[in-house]
Amino acid sequence: MFAPPEPAVRTTAAPSSREKERRRRVSPTEPSRISRLIALVALIIGSTVFAYPFIWMIATALRTNEGIAAGGISIWPIQWQWSNFSDGLGSFPFWLYLGNSVISTFVPVVFTVLVSSLVGFAFARIPARGSGALFAVVLGTMLLPGEVTLVPQFILFRALDMIDTLYPVILPAVFGSPFYIFLFRQFYLRLPQSLTEAAIIDGAGWFRIWRTIYLPLSQPIIVAAAVLQFMASWNNFIGPAIYVTTERWKTLPLALAGFSSTNSTNTSLLMATAIVVIAPCIAIFFLAQRHIVGGLSFTGSK
Question: How far apart are the first and last CA of the chain?
Fold first, then answer.
């Protein structure tokens, strides 16, 4: 007697590692090769646009004034006039200007970081009535253009007999910055509340909690704020240009302005000196780039 064949039983084998790799490659969420190529081309074009002025500045620093006129927008130096650096730095009291720039930069960096950290901690952890409204007022001051306060500040510092000193350049940063207060507050809000509660149970005060617990934990945002404030203070031109009138307290950005006059500009010496002046900012930014990105991303993430 004929027996009907039994239906074949379909078995589903576990996907091999090669199959998993193929599925992963064709995942719709992963960018395709064309998308990567487009992104790479866009990054190269964008990088070239932003890097071209700096490369042209280096090329111009190594040319003579006649070579600058002949070279145009070319980024090849044509001449290699290394003496432009020594001539540019020797045309003004470089070490005196450098000392003034160091003082007017490091003092604001230290005070801005410490004061902004302390105020940001208070807004983040100390419960107080009206603190939210007060923080909104602090944020609102960021909407005020700095040029609006130039005249009142000048009248104030003139009344205090501080014109032709570095005090008008340093003192405004001693009281912190609204932008950095906001960054520190957001950073501290990301830290566990249990740190504060445990310290309070142990009998610690608010200042001790900030100094011994929160300040050591905030190294990424401290580095980010310090680098950003360093660049702002080191390149500050408008402040010294308004308040400093003699050679004794001039800073390096004012020295760069000295290469330009009403009738002419010594472009080669100006570019050579500018490279030396901005070199600390470039070096510090690349050395602390990882901390800057880490601190700002931790502050902005939820």
Answer: 74
Q: How far apart are CA 72 and CA 109, in angstroms?
A: 39
| C-alpha angle 246-249-255 in degrees, rounded to nearest 5 | 80
Contact at 8 Å (CB) between 275 and 84?
Answer: no
* Phi (first) and psi of residue 246, to 5 degrees: -120, 170
For 152-182, letters b (16+ CB in 10 Å) and e give ebeeebeeeebeebbbbbbbbbeebbbbbbb
pLDDT in tens, the chain (302 residues): 444 444 444 444 555 666 666 555 555 556 678 888 898 999 999 988 888 888 888 888 888 877 877 777 777 767 788 888 888 888 889 999 999 999 999 999 999 999 999 999 999 999 888 888 999 998 888 888 878 888 999 999 999 999 989 999 999 888 888 999 999 999 999 888 888 889 898 888 999 999 999 999 888 889 989 999 999 999 999 999 999 988 889 999 988 888 877 777 888 888 899 999 999 988 988 888 777 777 777 665 55
3-state percent breakdown (helix, strand, coil) of the chain, nearest 5: 70, 0, 25
Helix count (H) and strand count (E) of the chain? 17, 0
Burial of 50 (0-12, 13-18, 19+ CB in 10 A): exposed
Contacts of 215 by beta carbon, 8 Å cutoff, 6+ apart: 117, 222
